[in-house]
Amino acid sequence: MFKSSLFSLAILLSFLMSVAVPGWSGAAILGLGWPYRLPLKVQVLRCGAPGKNIAWAQFYTNSARLPQGNDLRVTTSGRLILPMRILRISRYDNRVRLAFATPSSGTYYVWWGNPHPGPAAPTLKVDRGVWLRLFHFRPGESGSWRAMAARIAQAKCYASYFVPRIFIGFNPAGQNGRAMSLCQSWLKIPKVGSYRFAFDVNGVGYLALDGHDILIKSRRSGMYGRVRFKRLVNLKVGWHRVVMGAINYWGQIGMALDWMPPGTRAYSPVPKNLYAPIARASVGRLQKIGQTYAADFAIHPEAQVFVPPSYYFQRFAFQALIPASFSPQVAWKFSDGQTATGLRVEHEFLAPGIYKIQMTVQQGSREFTATRRIRISSVLYQMYPFPPADPLVVVARILKSYNLTNLDARQLARGVRFYRRYNTFPGLARWGRAWAKNRQPENATPALRIAGILAKAALAKRQYTWAALVYLLASQKPLNPDAKARLLANYVVTTCNYTTRASRAYAYARNFLTQNVHLPATARHVVLTAMAYAAVANGNGTLAVKLAKEAGPGVDKPYRQQEIQEGVLARNIESYILTGHFDTARRLINQWELDYPRAIIKGYTRLLRMKLLVTEGRPLIAARIGVQYVNALPTSFYSAELLYRAALALKVAGKTDAAGSIMARLKHDYPESPYGPKLAKQLAR
Question: Which H or E element spans position 256?
Fold first, then answer.
């Protein structure tokens, strides 16, 4: 008797709701077993276009949702199941985008969490908004618009969106390369007349109105300007079905549609308000059946900042959704080692990936937890048409609070690149130290570049010990032997040039060789060359000659070609020094000595280093490395000139007494050199 009464009551409710919602008779009632729901508030946008009104919403579920979204249902407030279409879902994160029928304005609900959901909800027919769908590339014919439409119809759709108008310059799904796209909508023609339409796509594509082809681009090419292909069409007042398809063979998706209405003389984008509008639902706070409060938070993509050479930091805001009667403590974890507290927090994501965001609400003795998984792409594609640029000062403020010991090497390296662009040495030094001490595996090429960035910044601030230490710490990372050897060589050269710890640098290089007996030949060559450089700095010319000979040339070329290449290098380095390209000049000198270690012994590269240092404004260092060389190799062809230039550098630095001592040495040790009298005249001025 009781079961019969419940069954009769269910039938009565179904009938009443079908009557209460015109146009949706026969729809099913959502049964029991759905524990979670979100309210969706909709203000219907009526327009008179063919079809029924719909709305779309984007929200985050929790882990109770089935991976493919089979348990998602949208209902009225009376649990009447409505037609719906999932636009975006992933098994890897919790973001969902869907469209659903909206018979009238009001509050609807999206449900999930039933492990046995039963039959699927009715499929929604999309008759509102500008509906963009993306498909996996499918080979086939593209000679006619019907052939292209057939290819797209047979392809698999992997994402769809509602966009303001038929215009897009990138793939909002974050994928580059070959893809197919389709835009469709109802277009309102306000008055009868002749309309000129113009379009273009990246690749091949077509434009159809009311099922007839208007424009077609069948030859593969990129987009030149905004629109190229044009046609005059006579249209009546009312709604017309517009469909634009594109097949992209390379690069990014590109679609553009312009028109020239009657009485105008210029092409312009079709106004947004002439497309059939679609409402976007406002998403409320999570509700769990049987509980007064379920922890929930809102996720808002805010902005992104470009970090050279090709990275983006993405800023998201997280807002705890709590009842007005609560006064809780809210803690956040972002699964990248960072934490925060507060009702609303902002976080910078430094690298793409899947992040688990956990919020804990402490209200008195009660604790509530909510977890959401979000996907961070290479670019902030969640914002259409393109995310705003984040002010550098905002990013720096957020990064200042980061616990760097919990970040991986890739994230730390990107932080270094950001602060290099932001041009603040304290932040660069802090992130640089954390990166240099990090012992996680990373690729050799980025590690060499990051170490170079940090050393360059330290040299600019005249923090010479730190500049050398960066290379030493980086050489202790788990890198391949060649990368370790190059970093160690940079440490040795930087230490010998800018500090007085050349003996320590030599000892490090020697120990490296001793501990790594089976080094590749290329790595061994680099370390021996660095040891030869350190031997010169220590005043041991005999050892330097021996090590340079053992290292041998780093390139296999005939002697004549080596001489020619060294001459070209000398000329180029002189030019770079004169034009202020100091980093390039320094890099070429290092490469010269690495390719031809005998250049360390000959002395001409030392002369170039002195010119570079004086031009950079480091005359004392220039004088010291000149004297170092003469002490080690006093019989070299360039020894007298190096003493001459060392004395001039000391004069520039205001050290006239020291310059006079070098002049006395020059006259005593090299009495036949013309640099002695020349220096006397220079110092007498």
Answer: strand 255-260
Decide: 286 and 361 in contact? Cβ < 8 Å: no
Q: In angstroms, how far is the first alpha carbon of the chain from the final one? A: 120
Please enumerate, as own/partner, the contacts of 207-215 that have beta carbons within 8 Å and a separation of 24 or more.
Answer: 207/242, 207/243, 207/244, 207/257, 208/145, 208/149, 208/242, 208/243, 208/244, 208/245, 209/233, 209/235, 209/240, 209/241, 209/242, 209/243, 210/240, 210/241, 211/241, 213/144, 213/145, 213/146
Give the model confidence (pLDDT) of 510-524 as tens digits.
999 999 988 999 999
How many degrees, rounded to 5, is the angle at CA 579 between CA 625 and CA 612? 0
CA atoms in the 13 A half-sphere facing the CB of 587: 11
| Spatial separation of the C-alpha atoms in residues 652 and 649, rounded to whole Å | 5
Q: What is the pLDDT of residue 13?
A: 43
Whether residue 98 contacts residue 57, with contact meaning beta carbons closer than 8 Å, is answered with yes
Closest CA to 280 of 354, 384, 188: 384
pLDDT for 11 beyond 90: no
The Cα–Cα gap between 447 and 484 comes to 10
**Rounded Cα gap, residues 548 and 46, in angstroms:** 83
Distance, CA of 197 to CA of 212 (rounded, Å):
14
- Looking only at the bridges linking them, the beta strands covering 212-221 and 157-163 are unpaired
d(CA 261, CA 192): 10
Cβ count near 331 (within 10 Å):
18
Please give the full DSSP string across 74-90, using - where no structure is assigned.
EE-TT-BB--EEEEE--
Determine what percent of the chain falls in helix, strand and coil, rounding each to the nearest 5: 40, 25, 35
For residues 195 and 240, what is the distance between their CA atoms, to the nearest angstrom? 13
Query: Which residue in this structure is represented by tokens 């002049």?
Result: 663
Distance between CA atoms of 300 and 281, rounded to whole angstroms?
A: 15
- Chain centroid to CA 534: 40
Question: What sign results for the dihedral spanned by CA atoms 65, 70, 74, 79?
Answer: negative
Cα dihedral 624, 627, 631, 632 sign:
positive
Asked if 63 and 111 count as a contact pair (C-beta separation under 8 A), the reply is no
Cis peptide bond upstream of 309, omega within 30: yes
Task: Please check whether residue 455 is in contact with residue 494, taking contact to mean a CB–CB distance below 8 angstroms.
Answer: yes
CA distance 244 to 421: 41
In sequence order, the 6+-apart residues with CB closer than 8 A to the CB of 251 are: 176, 177, 202, 222
Confidence band (pLDDT; 50, 70, 90) for 241?
A: very high
H or E segment and range at residue 238 = strand 238-248
Location of structure tokens 């039959």? 119
Please confirm whether the linkage preceding 35 is cis (ω < 30° from 0): no
Region 76-99 average pLDDT:
95
Residue 77: burial class (beta carbons within 10 Å; 0-12, 13-18, 19+):
exposed
Rounded Cα distance between 10 and 17, Å, is: 11
Q: Round to whole Å and give the CA distance between 262 and 508.
A: 80
pLDDT for 621-644, tens place per residue? 999 999 999 999 999 999 999 999
The pLDDT of residue 7: 39
Whether the bond between 139 and the residue before it is cis, its omega within 30 degrees of 0, is no
From CA 345, how far away is CA 316, in angstroms rounded?
8
d(C-alpha 58, C-alpha 129), whole Å = 15
Give the global pTM.
0.84
Q: What domains can be seen in the chain, in order of their start residue?
A: 33-128+277-290 (no CATH), 130-276 (2.60.120.1560), 292-399 (2.60.40.10), 404-551 (1.25.40)
